[in-house]
Design goal:
Length: 704
Amino acid sequence: MADTGTTLGAPAERREGRDKVTGRARYAAEQTVPGRLHAWPVAAGITRGAIRTVDTEAALALPGVRTVLSHTDAPRLAPADDPTLAVLQDARVPHHGWFVALVVAETLEAARAGAAAVRVAYDVEEHDVTLTEDHPDARTPDEANGGHPAHREQGDPEAAFATADVRVDARYRVPPLHNHPMEPHAATAHWNDGRLLVHDSSQGATTVRATLASLFRIPEDDITVVSEHVGGGFGSKGTPRPHVVLAVMATLATGRPVTVALPRRLMADVVGHRAPTLHRFRLGATADGILVSSLHEVTTHTSRIKEFVEQAAVPSRIMYAAPHRLTTHRVVPLDVPSPSWMRAPGEAPGMFALESAMDELAVAAGVDPVELRIANEPAVEPDSGRPFSSRHLVECLREGARRFDWARRDPRPRSRTEGPLLVGTGVAAATYPVMVSPARATAHALPDGRFTVRINATDIGTGARTVLAQIAADTLGVPLDRVRADVGNSDLPSAPLAGGSSGTASWGWAVHEACTRLAARLAEHTGPLPDAGLHGHADTAGSADAESDYARHAFGAHFAEVTVDTVTGEVRVRRLLGVYAAGRILNARTARSQFIGGMTMGLGMALTEGSTMDAASGAFVETDLASYHVPVHADVPDIEAHWIEEDDPHLNPMGSKGIGEIGIVGTAAAIANATHHATGTRYRTLPLTPSQILPNLPTTPPPL
């Protein structure tokens, strides 16, 4: 085999990096098509009711405004599988921020001015947006997200808990959270030679094309959706959103190209959010901390138009051995915007509760928190009884403890001070499922010695182009610089979306298979290649989606050191360390970036990010980056990500697991546990802001 230079595992630089930092990369809203118009949505200012009238006279009188679409004259859509896409179809207003009109104008400024001039009158109805555990409309659905049964029970968990030597009974709360990608949701739509061409900020162009074809009754073959460069998504761009539907509506109505770029302040209501979760966790254990009972009960909200049940109790089904177990979800339909996917859905809030409860159990039993987790390591997946394809959580905990110098930790709360600062350390485990879906890919060998792989993968900033080229180069046995990867266009071989940490596993499997077949053809070929080159094709349906006999998950361990200012109540993170077992790492550079990015997002979840639903208006209060605080460089002074070598033959041809989301999963709990160690007070509601910390700091001075 030829020297492949930088192939699998090597820290190859992202291929599109220079284009992005120099501005050559063009995003969905930057498609300067001749004759392009701009559109600006009008959002409902009520929470529940119906539109009585839409007065567009003042808007249409403004210079540059071309048309205003509303439910009275917008193009009619076919019934939508996703009700959040049925925009401008009727007079109903199901929640605050629902789009009630669209102003189309020659410039972005004119469209914005026109939207401000539209006057909408409503018939207002009473609303309810407040989530409580004892809400009378709370119910247990059949399933939580992902097809997981909403309720699972083994043994007699209530009785086992009641008789346990050590018991923890605690409630935790994670507020609504918002994705806030750097690039807001945007689309540019226009007709080109009888075809509908849409540039969309999306995590999956294949799904967007199918959805538009269904809604507008256009053959899929007459639609091309391009998502070549996407400025982040974190789940909010995982399924089609209303902006792309509005863009197509506007181009149909005007006959000209139209761009819709959502203002950030409108995004909270229309692109999904992480639903708030209320957790009750009960752990029963022997005197030395061995679990006998685990009960995790979750209450969350959904909208009235689309059910979305955050599967926050599911990770409790796989983490630790306990003979008696209960996990259950309850959901309350409210007059709120529809929740949706946000990075590590289910796992991020669920593991905050579980890993906080495990820390409380360690304190109650007088057992080191690392050793407690190791002592409760299961031999098989507790819920299903299946063997793990690989599980190296213990190794992650041991390696993390070594790197963090955990052995020198004084376990006593408030045992370390620096002037007015209390210093604490904490640990939490992490897990995320291995998911993979069928995909198609082609591989081409060209006469000049170059190769091209083609697949409708979406690079949302993860370096997918680079890693797919590395997989191809490794499979073909050629240098990386001879391989090009074409992605982000629905005319390419179809592929699933970038989500669930499943992208590389799904796309890479198809690329590997296509290149394997191409390599076989090349081995049989003699003489120069024909002008058209040689090709290999792959479709992993039936293999990538086959049932596995193994429980497949990635695991990790998070360690945090924090300071708590006794004067201001501010929590600052000094050190974050993550150690992961995620199969074969395909690119050391992009993998480390993914882990660190997830950990930074987990830090935001712990300390700065939180959304408030105003009961009177039914609106999220924090709707921009001035009020919804995401972490910045100054918030992360020392952050490290490492991994252990893991060989798992039960995953995919590359032996890889997803890495995009596991970085966030345990971070918030590690920081909260470190805050308890620093202060001696247990904080169970995120985020850990000064307003929560300061009033609850102990009044006694720290030990000298």
